[in-house]
Design a protein that fits this description.
The protein is of the alpha+beta class. About 30% of the residues lie in helices and about 30% in strands. It binds coenzyme A.
């Protein structure tokens, strides 16, 4: 559920706060860098995200938060559960006609449906606030949990590409997915049918 009134520019979008049943998604600030560094400093996360370095140091988190504050090409949200930071989710707008969804959670928070819940909130927000035709995303072929999230959010597989992962220091195959506005809109409007006894 959208809590604040969103603003029309991409840069302002990350100032919005999104709320779901269990999560609050908000812009990360310098007060969060300790928590972000503690969560992100795990090889299991770095090896599944393209740009996260490993080890992930306090200075990486400072640099990231500062960059996000100035960079109009990304809308990034810190994910909180019970007021505790648990991970990040966002959309990279470097290719404006194909914005890209990405996310990661601290390992202690895996396996509870949090990433799906956060991804759905950001997908809804992005389609509702901006004009574009499709979101893209990707998951390493060795990352079934992330593929599962994308499929549960309505993404459709579109092929395999090789992408470079900073923490691996090499390229690796990635399953690519897309979610078109029409599929998203159809899923959002798929109401419950009722069954009547004759
Ligand atoms: C991928 C990641 C975000 C998943 O977070 P999460 O909160 O545990 O995900 P969810 O619980 O919302 O959903 C994961 C789904 O995958 C399933 N899953 C988990 N591990 C799996 C596995 N090894 N094989 C198949 N399915 C798996 C879960 O059962 C769940 O599906 P379900 O709800 O139908 O049961 C988390 O593991 C992470 O941060 N990984 C490192 C970074 C990363 O991979 N980011 C994504 C890059 S695109």
């Amino acid at each position: 559920m959208l809590q604040d009134i969103p603003t029309p520019t991409l840069h302002e979008a990350s100032k919005c706060v999104l709320e779901t049943e269990r999560l609050m998604l908000r812009r990360p600030t310098l007060a969060d860098v300790k928590a972000i560094a503690a969560l992100a400093n795990d090889r299991h996360i770095a090896e599944n995200t393209r740009r996260l370095p490993h080890p992930y140091l306090h200075d990486h988190a400072v640099e990231f938060v500062r960059a996000m504050a100035d960079d109009p090409r990304e809308t990034v949200f810190l994910i909180e559960n019970n007021h505790t930071p648990i991970g990040m989710v966002g959309v990279d707008w470097r290719k404006p006609d194909a914005p890209e969804l990405g996310y990661w959670l601290g390992v202690d928070y895996w396996g509870q449906g949090f990433a799906t819940e956060a991804a759905r909130a950001v997908i809804d927000f992005t389609f509702e606030e901006f004009e574009f035709e499709r979101l893209i995303s990707g998951a390493r072929v060795a990352n079934p949990a992330s593929r599962n999230i994308l499929e549960k959010c309505g993404f459709q597989w579109s092929g395999v590409e090789l992408h470079r992962f900073e923490a691996l220091g090499s390229s690796t195959p990635v399953d690519c997915f897309r979610l078109s506005r029409s599929v998203w809109s159809s899923l959002k409007n798929w109401g419950n049918s009722t069954r009547r006894a004759r």
